[in-house]
Amino acid sequence: MGWNRLAFAAAATLACVAASAQSGAFAQSFVRGVYDDLAPGLCLVSYNYEVTNPATGQTARNSSHALGVLVSSDGLIMVRGHMVLDHMTPFNIRVAIPGENGDALLPAQVVRKPPDVNVVFLEIQGDHGPFSYVSFDGGPELQLGESVLLVGKLGETLDNVSAIGFRRVGAILEQPRRTYALDDPLPLGYVGAPVVNGAGQVVGVTGYDLSLGEGGDLHVRSGHPIIYQSNLFQRYIDDPHSEPEDDPLGDSWLGVFTQPLTDNLAEYWDLPPEGGIVISSIVDGSPAAAAGFQRGDVVTHFNGVAVRARQDRDVLGFTGLIRAAPTGPPVPYRLLRNGEVVEGEVTLVARPRTHLDAEQFEDAVFGMTLREITTDLRLALNLPQDIQGVIVQNVRPGGWAQLAQIRPGVIVIGFGGHPVTNLSDYRDAVEQVLEERPAEVALFGRVGQVTGFFRIEPRWDQYDEQ
Q1: Which CATH class is domain 252-350?
Q2: Are 312 and 265 in contact (CB under 8 A)?
Q3: Which fold has domain 18-244?
Q4: pTM for the full model?
Q5: DSSP output for 272-298
Q6: In this predicted model, what pLDDT tens digit does every residue of 419-431 receive, in sequence order?
Q7: CA atoms of 379 and 368, how far apart (whole Å)
Q8: Which of 102, 116, 284, 428 is in the most buried spot, having the most CB atoms within 10 Å?
C-alpha cells in the first residue's frame, strides 16, 4: 500500500473515530426521536437560475437544488441564502414534499431574503397544506466543544434521503455578533439543516455567510460553516411579509469603500501600526463626498469610537459603527490625511435602497420585467450618474422583447421615442405606445459601454385576441 493510500486510510479512520465520538454524546433512541420529529419537515428545493454579467448584460442559465426546511404549516420554507445572490435570479422553483404516495412536486416563489442573516424564505404557491414543519427554540446558548445533531439530506445518488449528521462547536466568535463555528465542512445537503442540542432543542440552522465579493455587508464570516441561531431569523418566520425595516444595526449610510490599515500599509505610509480604516473609494453624491473625504484618508475615530481595523474582518466593526450612527445630527470623525490629523463632522443619510428591495415593473405587453437602478447596482455596473434609466431583469420566452433580442442587463434609456429615467417614465411610455400602436417600436438602451437601438415589431392583432 503506497503512502497516499495509507494517508487516506488513516484520515478515514480518524474521521470515523471523530464521528463516533460526537455521535456517542447522543443515545440512539434520542437520535431516532429527533430524526422522526424533524425529517417530515425537510424538503428538496430544485430551481433554475439566471446569472447576469453586469459588464456585458449577457446571461447564463443553469440549475441547482438545495435543502429546504418547512417552518410553517402553510408552506413557508427556509433555504440557504446562496440561492439568491447579486445578479443571480432563481426561477421555476419546485419543492419536493415527501408523502405516503411519493414526493409531491409543488411550485414556490421567493418571498424574502433578510439583510442580516444569509437565508432565503420561499412560499409554496396554492392551497396544499397543512404541512409538517420544524419549530425552533429561542434562547439556548451553545458551549465550545458541544456536540450537535444535524438533520439534512444525502445526495442524488442516494435518492436525496433524509439523514442525520454530527458536528461540534469548534469555535465561538463574539464580534460583530455571537457566532458558532462548526468543526468540519458540510456536504451540500446539510447546508441549512436544523441543529439540535443535547437537550433536544432545535437551536438554529447551519449556513455560510456571504463574502464581500458575493454581496456580504453586515456579517461576513464566509468560507466556514456556522450556526445561525433561531433568534436571528424567527421574526422573519413570524411575519415573512413585513417591511424590512428592523435592521439591528440601523440604516445609516456614509458612501465609501474601505480596507483595513494593515501593518504593511502603515509601514509604507510611515504611520503608527495601530490600525484604522483606509478610504479606497467614495460614492458620488454621498455624505462622505459632501463632507470632503478623500481617497487614501485613514479613519481612526468615528462617532467617538476608536477604529483599529488591521485585518479584513475588522472592517465589519466600522460598518456597524456607521449603520448604528444617527441620520440627521452631524457625526464627528477623526482621520489621518498625509500623516496629519484632520477632524470634522459628517451628516449621514438613510441607506439607499438595494437591489434586494428594488421596485420593479412587469411589462406584460412587450414581455419583460424591469427594475429601478439602485446605488449598489450602479456601482457594480460602473454606471455613471448621468446615465439614467431602468434595467431589464427578465425577458419572457417568445415575447416581443425576446424576438427583438433584448436580454437581461440592458439599461433602457428610451422607449418608443420617450425618454426613460425611472420606472414611472417607462410605464407612461408603454401606455403611450399602446394608444398609438405603431408598426415598430424602438428601444434605446445601453449594454456595457455601448448604446444602441433595439427594433421591436409588435403584433397588435395577437395582443387584441388575448
Answers
A1: mainly beta
A2: no
A3: Thrombin, subunit H (2.40.10)
A4: 0.61
A5: -SS--EEEEEE-TTSHHHHHT--TT-E
A6: 999 999 999 999 9
A7: 23
A8: 116
